Amino acid sequence: MNAQTEPDLDHGDRERIYAYLKDHGPTDYESVQEATFPQDPGGFRHHVAILKRNGLVEEALGGGLQVVPELEGEEEEFTRDGVEFHVRPARQADLSGILGVLRQVAEKRTYIVAETVAQELDHERELLRQDDVESRVFFVATVNEEVVGWVHLQSPEIEKLSHTSELTMGVLEEYRGHGLGGHLLERGLEWAGSQGYERVYQSIPSTNEGAVEFLEDHGWEVEAVREGHYKIDDEYVDEVMMAVSL
């Protein structure tokens, strides 16, 4: 089934604004108000504020408003060792769930890049990004509709690096060993290949032996090691730089 379902807006007036923006694309404030709330500018501003708060509408790059983009794709269902889980494109509504998993994985201090992703996401509050600076997407693994794992790809919009993308991923500890990580990784790399990326990479502290082994088991190679690149708990730790060709 298609993962890009209509959001539950809980209010007919907000649904009207959302539907207008979805049909018309980025539109200036005045035109949206005239089309949806011509007699009630105060109500319009209120509903726009709620739509922004809920991650459904955002400021357009050229000004005005637009619907927050959703990544299209199929939702896949898997069962292993009695654990049923789904892998699908992330939606803006998954923001808090993804942040929760990111923070739990990052708190072990064995995945420095994940800490950075969590900080950026918490600050910017948008999952999907496509502009003249960078692009990023997320896919999630869910159990009972709760996010328990993620895979994230981020690429700078620089011509000389346009063939590469950086990947991060993680799964809550209690759900590891059931294949969630492998399916997330496969989904992320499948998407990267479909977008024309030729090489995907990530960097991991050498103390995260499980992650290095996991990636090697899935065809990744160690490209370089930067000695003492990280300082964790007053100890210098090497950075393992890994990559896979698509």
Could you explain how this protein is built, in words?
The structure is a single chain. The chain is an alpha+beta fold. The protein has 7 helices and 11 strands. The longest helix is centred in the C-terminal third of the chain and has 15 residues, at about 180-195. About 30% of the residues are buried.
Summarize, please.
The chain is of the alpha+beta class and 246 residues long. The protein contains seven helices and eleven strands.
Question: How would you describe this structure in keywords?
Answer:
246 residues; alpha+beta; 9-stranded mixed sheet; two-stranded antiparallel ribbon; 7 helices; 11 strands; 32% strand; elongated; disordered N terminus
User: What is the CA-based Rg, rounded?
Assistant: 20 Å
Helix-strand pattern: HHHEEEEHHEEEEHEHEE
**How far do the termini sit from each other?**
26 Å
- Poorly predicted parts: 1-6
Chain-averaged pLDDT: 89
Biggest sheet character: 9 strands, mixed
Structural class: alpha+beta
Count of individual helical segments: 7
Q: Given the C-alpha coordinates, what overall shape results? A: elongated
What is the helical fraction, as a range of percent? Answer: 25-40%
Q: Strand-residue fraction?
A: 25-35%
Query: How many distinct beta strands?
Result: 11
